Every structure is written in structure tokens, then in C-alpha cells.
């Protein structure tokens, strides 16, 4: 394997089935994932922020062993109940995310904040518009977190119970990727960037991950290039995009200039060969013999994390 690009071996057959009309594409589910950044103190002697990543359990059928960010699907309950809100207006978020309504924008941002709390124990919310909670490690917090994971508690209900407002100003939209039409599970995923709030600490709270790491985006991308870290194209692409920034704050400021046009993989036949491309991301292009086995490399983010 020349790099750490994950590729499902069943893709060629599914692509042929879609092209022949034997397979009908499913509607993507809305989702969000968060690139959580932190700056090390000057005495650490490091340059650039580190990003929090989790490794999917190797026993998982989908992308087992792949490194990703905390994330997951939108909870429909977050569309129809206004939450305590701080930061840019819902209307401005709707325009940035490219969705039709303020309710849709709220649901996507809520998913980003909720999933970061569920999978990393970090909460981008506070009692006022200019504060953030500093400690979420108590037993009562853990009970609420588990209730959110089990969908026994809505995120709006959680914020209301705690007397908190969502700090939408602490994160920014960075990219948007849609799972290819030939996948059975599809997600329309917004990638966000956020800085670790002062006083909070990450932990591996996800049942789908067997380890978590703080790693510089450039180091993670280099590990992928060497074939040491398994990843899907959206993860690699966003890591490369984060590489130039010297601090978490610089990355957050740069988010507004990032292109949020959806990236959707395309498949076509060229003679006896299947060609997979991701527009604007030529490094992920794959040529697959139409009647042969799948290559070792390739893939996309069929899971929002």
C-alpha cells in the first residue's frame, strides 16, 4: 500500500450496479464532524496546533483502524426546538452552510457541538454568551452525556436543563463532503474547526474508537503518506488544508475563506476500467480494472466521523 488510503473492496461491484440501474442511490443523511485544535505552551518547543483524532476500532466492518475526527449524524429533534444560542445568527449560519432554513443550520451546528461532547468530552457551551464550562468530568455530566448518546435526551433539552447557551462563535465551518452515490450508508457531512476551550480536556468517550491522539495536521498527513496511518480522503484533505496555520486561532480565522461547495465522488467507465475521482482532489483518483479485484488504496468518508 503506497499510502494509508482506505478502500472498500465491494466498491467496484456497487459502482457497476449503480451504472446499470440495478442500484438506487439513497438520500444522504446530514452529519457534522469537528477538527478540535489546541496550542501547546511555548516551552513545548512545537510549531502549529495539534488536532484531536480518534482511531476507529479495528474490529469495525466499516473503515476499521482508520483515523478520523469526532462526529455523527444530525438529530432531527434539533430542527424544531430553539436552543440557547450565542455567536453568529442562525440566518448567517444557514447562508454559510448552504442550507435553506435557520432550523437546518441550528441542527447541523448542534450536531457538531453534541458529537464533540459525546465522543471527546468537550463542550462548546457556557452559562452566558461569553463564558464556557470549564469542567465536564463529574458523574452528573457523564450521566447526561450517556443519555445524549442513547438519544434519551435531546441536545436542546440538555442545554435547557443545564442553563447553557451553545457557543456557535467557538467553531467555524471548514469543508463539506458527501458520501458517494454507490454507498449504502450516505452522509452529507459538514467539517468544522474549533479550539479546545480553556480548562477542558479531551478523553476517549466514543464506543467506536480504541484510541485517541493529539497530533499536528502535517505529522498526521505525513503518516498517511508513509502508509502508517489509515484514513479516508476527507480526513486527509482537511489535514493538508490545516497544515499552513501556526495557531488554532489562525485556523479559525481562515475558515471563512474555505470553500464549502460539496465534494462528491464520481465514477465513470473508461474502456474496461472504472475511474473514481473526487473533484478538486486529484490525489484520490483511482483506476480500477472492471473485472478485477479492488486496489489496496482508495475510499471516501462513508461515515461522518
From TrEMBL:
InterPro entries per record: NUDIX_hydrolase-like_dom_sf, NUDIX_hydrolase_dom, NUDT19
Residue ranges of the region described as Disordered: 285-305
Composition-biased stretches (Gly residues): 294-305
Entry annotated with the keyword Magnesium: yes
Stored PROSITE patterns: NUDIX
Gene Ontology terms, MF aspect: hydrolase activity
Keywords of this entry: Hydrolase, Magnesium, Manganese, Metal-binding
Residue ranges constituting the Nudix hydrolase domain according to the UniProt record: 28-237
Tree of life domain: Bacteria
Required cofactor(s): Mg(2+); Mn(2+)
Entry protein name: NUDIX hydrolase
Species name: Streptomyces argenteolus
